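A note from the maintainers: we've had questions about how concatenated examples are separated. There is no special marker in the raw files; a new sequence line simply starts the next protein. For clarity in this README we add a label.
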Amino acid sequence: MSDYPADDQYRRFRESAEPTLKEFARSTLSSATKTLSGGTWHPYGFAIWYLHTVPQLGKLRLHVWPDENRKTRPWGPRIHRHGWHLASLVLTGTYRDVLYSDSAEHPGPGDWRPVTPYRVEVLPGNKRRITPEDGTLYIRQEQDREVDASDMHYIPAGKFHETLIPSDEFVATLVLLGHEQGVGSSAVEDQRLGPRVHQRSTLADSEAERILDRLQARLRASRPTR
């Protein structure tokens, strides 16, 4: 895949994000996970912890896909795009996703498929409203990715993608969410659903403790011995 989009802002974000994430993982992550609490379930089945804001770059978060008892939203689109650039360092396990090309007009021959676009709005109380939009969008699979522990991956603003972590795999990533780029967050799906609101749930203390304990154990096991 080409370095999409080919602009200086995205290039600078990538160049700054990698050393920032790797330095935090090396020097701060272990102690930070020992003091975390709460956390939120993302509708796609991973737990989110906000860590802090990196000046000039964006928000730093921890994402963990546990290998048991994930809480997912049973309805709605999963292929989506963000309004910001994203950089991610895989801490443990193998991260998997699919990137998609998209077009507002039918591009002609090829494996393009028509989908319904949905607008995603952030509401008070950690809720999201998902509303179908008029018209049809066309997407096709562009790249399957597998990213191993200690490697980086990036998703530019406006790039449709779908994260595919098997339910029996434990995966954690350290993620940097850049600043808004003027591209609205949205999602697509084959079928058309009516407007719905999803309430994101907070992890129970026992859930958070179990997941973070597992993460700390895996991080300790992956450290080189002296």
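[label: protein 2]
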Amino acid sequence: MVSSQVLVSAIVFWIIQWRSILCSAYIWNFALSSTLNNKVDYDNFHPRNIRAFKDRISQHNAIDKQEICKTDKSCGKGKFCDRHYGFCDRKRQSGQYCRRDGQCEHGLQCMFGKCTKSLKHGTIGARCRHDKDCGASMCCARQHGERICKAKLKIHAKCYVPQGGLEYSLNEMCPCDRGLTCKPTLKQKDDSPSWRFWSTFDHMRCSPG
């Protein structure tokens, strides 16, 4: 009976010891795998830190190899001068991010932050500066901050616009087409919340006269 109790006690003791060892190993592994305040410890030769170190070196080498520039002319063919960082970079293809037209390949323009195919002058979506730059029944209005040709509003189209503000300044709306006027449509008034919302926005339509 005594020997059985001793055996059980020994087993329990070793289980506790192994759990303590495993817990310590887990804590040390977590400490080595993690970095303090999301910073890489380059003195710690953990595989994650070694990879980060190699990435940092490759990035620095890539920057060192860049041609320093101030204008696009100082860069070679098919390149542009990144004026923010001051070095030459390859021109972007369709769908890639850009900050200006000069960063895109020939035949592309930088619209809404991406290189896209240039549109025919005066057509819907083409760049403009004034209404006269656009075709018939169009106006020159901002879309996400870019001035482009948009179609004027047709009959029964919603025509409400705010008095001003950032949202309107970034996304403008053309007026109603010739012969149409933006005015409230008739509807029986009531005091419901749906009427108050509808009467503020939805009732303004392009109508004849």
